[in-house]
Fold:
Amino acid sequence: QVHLVESGGGLVQPGGSLRLSCAASGSIFSIYAMGWYRQAPGKQRELVAHITSAGNTKYADSVKGRFTISRDNAKNTVYLQMGSLKPEDTAVYYCNLGSEYGGLYYSHDYWGQGTQVTVSS
Structure:
Protein backbone atom coordinates (compact mmCIF):
# COMPACT_ATOMS: atom_id res chain seq x y z
CA GLN A 1 0.00 0.00 0.00
CA VAL A 2 1.11 3.54 -0.81
CA HIS A 3 -0.03 6.61 1.08
CA LEU A 4 0.59 10.08 -0.35
CA VAL A 5 -0.08 13.32 1.51
CA GLU A 6 0.15 16.71 -0.20
CA SER A 7 0.63 19.97 1.66
CA GLY A 8 1.66 23.56 1.10
CA GLY A 9 -1.27 24.89 -0.88
CA GLY A 10 -3.04 28.11 -0.12
CA LEU A 11 -4.02 31.52 -1.41
CA VAL A 12 -1.37 33.52 -3.23
CA GLN A 13 -1.39 36.67 -5.33
CA PRO A 14 -0.54 36.60 -9.03
CA GLY A 15 3.22 36.62 -9.46
CA GLY A 16 3.73 34.97 -6.10
CA SER A 17 5.28 31.66 -5.16
CA LEU A 18 4.32 28.49 -3.31
CA ARG A 19 6.14 25.29 -2.51
CA LEU A 20 4.09 22.11 -2.45
CA SER A 21 5.24 18.97 -0.70
CA CYS A 22 4.15 15.37 -1.04
CA ALA A 23 5.16 12.86 1.59
CA ALA A 24 5.04 9.20 0.62
CA SER A 25 4.84 6.20 2.90
CA GLY A 26 4.29 2.49 2.55
CA SER A 27 6.46 2.06 -0.54
CA ILE A 28 10.03 2.01 -1.77
CA PHE A 29 9.93 5.65 -2.77
CA SER A 30 13.28 5.95 -4.51
CA ILE A 31 12.51 3.46 -7.30
CA TYR A 32 9.47 5.31 -8.62
CA ALA A 33 8.95 8.25 -10.86
CA MET A 34 6.73 10.88 -9.26
CA GLY A 35 4.39 13.36 -10.86
CA TRP A 36 2.40 16.43 -9.97
CA TYR A 37 -1.04 16.79 -11.49
CA ARG A 38 -3.62 19.50 -11.13
CA GLN A 39 -7.36 19.63 -11.66
CA ALA A 40 -9.66 22.62 -11.85
CA PRO A 41 -13.45 22.25 -11.52
CA GLY A 42 -14.97 20.92 -14.72
CA LYS A 43 -11.60 20.13 -16.26
CA GLN A 44 -9.58 16.98 -16.70
CA ARG A 45 -6.70 16.25 -14.41
CA GLU A 46 -3.51 17.27 -16.18
CA LEU A 47 0.11 16.33 -15.66
CA VAL A 48 2.12 19.38 -14.65
CA ALA A 49 5.56 17.90 -14.06
CA HIS A 50 7.29 14.64 -13.31
CA ILE A 51 10.63 13.47 -12.05
CA THR A 52 12.22 10.08 -12.64
CA SER A 53 13.96 7.91 -10.10
CA ALA A 54 17.23 9.20 -11.56
CA GLY A 55 16.18 12.82 -11.07
CA ASN A 56 15.39 13.73 -14.66
CA THR A 57 12.54 16.21 -14.97
CA LYS A 58 9.94 17.23 -17.52
CA TYR A 59 7.29 19.94 -17.48
CA ALA A 60 4.08 20.83 -19.21
CA ASP A 61 4.54 23.75 -21.59
CA SER A 62 2.21 25.86 -19.49
CA VAL A 63 4.55 25.81 -16.49
CA LYS A 64 8.01 25.60 -18.07
CA GLY A 65 10.36 28.15 -16.60
CA ARG A 66 8.05 28.81 -13.66
CA PHE A 67 7.77 25.50 -11.79
CA THR A 68 10.49 23.18 -10.52
CA ILE A 69 9.95 19.60 -9.39
CA SER A 70 12.46 17.96 -7.07
CA ARG A 71 12.71 15.02 -4.72
CA ASP A 72 14.41 14.13 -1.47
CA ASN A 73 14.59 10.36 -1.32
CA ALA A 74 15.91 10.39 2.25
CA LYS A 75 12.64 12.04 3.30
CA ASN A 76 10.38 10.16 0.87
CA THR A 77 9.19 13.54 -0.34
CA VAL A 78 8.64 15.21 -3.69
CA TYR A 79 8.30 18.98 -4.06
CA LEU A 80 6.84 21.39 -6.54
CA GLN A 81 8.27 24.89 -6.33
CA MET A 82 5.88 27.23 -8.11
CA GLY A 83 6.80 30.76 -9.10
CA SER A 84 5.31 33.54 -11.21
CA LEU A 85 1.90 32.13 -10.41
CA LYS A 86 -1.04 32.99 -12.61
CA PRO A 87 -4.80 32.79 -11.95
CA GLU A 88 -4.99 29.90 -14.42
CA ASP A 89 -2.74 27.90 -12.09
CA THR A 90 -5.65 27.72 -9.65
CA ALA A 91 -6.50 24.06 -9.08
CA VAL A 92 -6.27 21.18 -6.69
CA TYR A 93 -2.78 19.78 -6.97
CA TYR A 94 -2.14 16.06 -6.57
CA CYS A 95 1.05 14.09 -6.37
CA ASN A 96 1.22 10.73 -8.06
CA LEU A 97 3.38 7.64 -8.11
CA GLY A 98 4.27 6.38 -11.56
CA SER A 99 6.83 5.30 -14.12
CA GLU A 100 8.57 6.84 -17.08
CA TYR A 101 8.99 4.96 -20.30
CA GLY A 102 10.09 6.27 -23.66
CA GLY A 103 10.05 9.82 -22.34
CA LEU A 104 6.41 9.56 -21.27
CA TYR A 105 4.98 9.42 -17.77
CA TYR A 106 2.55 6.67 -16.78
CA SER A 107 0.46 6.91 -13.64
CA HIS A 108 0.19 3.94 -11.31
CA ASP A 109 -3.10 5.36 -10.02
CA TYR A 110 -1.85 6.16 -6.52
CA TRP A 111 -2.98 9.61 -5.41
CA GLY A 112 -2.96 11.84 -2.38
CA GLN A 113 -5.94 13.85 -1.16
CA GLY A 114 -4.79 16.96 -3.00
CA THR A 115 -3.96 20.46 -1.86
CA GLN A 116 -5.80 23.56 -3.05
CA VAL A 117 -3.85 26.32 -4.77
CA THR A 118 -5.71 29.54 -5.41
CA VAL A 119 -4.05 32.38 -7.30
CA SER A 120 -6.08 35.55 -6.95
CA SER A 121 -5.74 39.19 -6.06
Observations:
- Residues 13 and 120 are 5 Å apart (CA to CA).
